[in-house]
Amino acid sequence: MLIRHVNEPRESEVTDRRLYAGRRGILAGGAAFALAGLTPARAAPLDVTPAAPLPNDKTTPLDKITSYNNFYEFGYGKDDPEAYAGKLTTRPWLVVVDGACQKPTTFAIEDLLRMNLQQRIYRHRCVEAWSMVIPWVGFPLADLLAKVEPTGSAKYVAFKTLLRPAEMPGQRSASLSWPYVEGLRLDEAMHDLTLLAVGIYGETLPNQDGAPIRLVTPWKYGFKGIKSIVAIHLQETQPATTWNIEAPNEYGFYANVNPEVDHPRWSQAKERRIGEFSRRDTLMFNGYAEQVAPLYAGMDLRKNF
Question: How far apart are CA 223 and CA 251, in angstroms?
Answer without folding.
Answer: 9
